[in-house]
Structure formats: structure tokens, C-alpha cells
Amino acid sequence: MSSTAPEHAAPAAGSAAPVVAVEDVHRSFGSGRTAVHALRGVSFTARRGELTALKGRSGSGKTTLLNLVGGLDRPDSGRILLDGLDLSGLGEDELLGLRRDRIGFVFQSFGLIPVLTAAENVGIPLRLRRIPARRREERVRELLALVGLDDHAAQRPGELSGGQQQRVAIARALANEPALIIADEPTGQLDSATGQSVMQLLRAVVRSEGVTALVATHDPQLMELADRVVELGDGRILPG
After folding, report:
1. Of 8, 13, 50, 120, which residue is least crowded by CB atoms under 10 Å?
2. 178 domain residue, yes or no
3. pLDDT for res 14
4. What pTM was estimated for this model as a whole?
5. Alpha helical stretches, state H, the chain
6. Residue 9: is its pLDDT beyond 60?
7. For residue 15, with 0-12 CB atoms within 10 Å meaning exposed, 13-18 middle and 19 or more buried, which class applies?
8. Average pLDDT, whole number, for the chain?
9. Residue range of the domain that includes 99
């Protein structure tokens, strides 16, 4: 599917304005003849409650794009807006706060802390925000139940399957009720059946929690579960 045209207005209450707006974004690494042009004028939007899959071969620009939208990197030119907020106008401390409070990350390698239980891993973002213990424990229970792991709260990552670990990672990403979830190949280390189960969970979570998700994936079966598919090639969005 092709991308939609970028929209510039900040979202009003009850409006259908996009949660994410990427506007003519360019990003290169290096300089001169050896420069790598990772993104070349990328524009697209993602709306609330929508799961957008990013597809493309390795080197197409998917991870670079996710890093820019997640505030982990800055574009050379163009704009990225999250809920109408222009990320280019934020300092490093403000970007850190944005990632902590408004964005949830899900990694291919799960990113769980081995010595902590599933419940403790999910609760990390809430501790960073100094949420009171009672409310934190309630939210952790809610999230583990949401991802089907309420009976595994006391187990550590090494005692869980790969699929269960990724479910914990999804619960952790939801802890602070983010506007956006960014997932880079979240099923890359899972077998096809487990990967599809995790993607179905992510699809259900997007709908039930009303969040937006950007998911980079190579798997055609997983793309079928997305609301939209944006294909990248040589740093550009390809027509769909």
C-alpha cells in the first residue's frame, strides 16, 4: 500500500489527525561519494489505533525510519511529528522524556533484564516515572493479564519461552500508556507459529488500548494482520 499525504495541523480533541506524521524526511550517513542515503524524502502518516507494517529488504531504511520516529536519531531534513509535536524542536532531555512517557519499544531480542521477574520487567517504566507502588502493581497485573501471562508473573526471562518473553516485552511497552509502539522485527527470533501469535496479540492490543504501532517485518503472513503496509526500497516509499 502506498503512503498517505502528510498532514500539518496539530490534533484537536476527537479529530482524526495522525499520531505520527513523517514529512519529506532525508537521512544520510557519511559524506561525499561514500555517503549512504538511508532515507530519501519519506512521507507518511499513521493514525490512532492503527498498525502500520514497514516492509523492505535489509538496507531499505526501515530501522533508520523507526529510530527517527522514536526520537533515537534526527533527520538531516524534513519533519517528524508525534501527536502534533515536532521532534526537531526538542532537546535531548525532552526527547528522553518523550521516549519514556509517550513511546513504547519492542525489540527483536526482547530486551528483558534476566535477573528480574516478568512482573518486575513490566514495571520498570512505571518505576522510572515514580508511580506509587499500589498503582504500579495494579497496572502490571492488568498488562500481564492482557498478554495472557498473569500466571507467569514471578518467572524470570530464562524460565519463559521466546514467545512468552516477547509478550512480556509488549506488556512493558504498554506500561506508560504510550501514544505509539515501535517494534523492529519483533518476531525475528521466533518460529512462524509463535511469531504469528505474537503479531496477533500486538494487533489486538493496538485495538484494545487505542495505541498506534509501527512494526518493521519481513514476514508476509504478519503483514496480512496490519491495517496498512508501507514498503521501503532504497530509502524511498514504493508505490503500492
Report:
1. 13
2. yes
3. 38
4. 0.86
5. 62-69, 92-102, 118-128, 133-146, 162-174, 192-209, 220-223
6. no
7. exposed
8. 89
9. 50-73+91-237
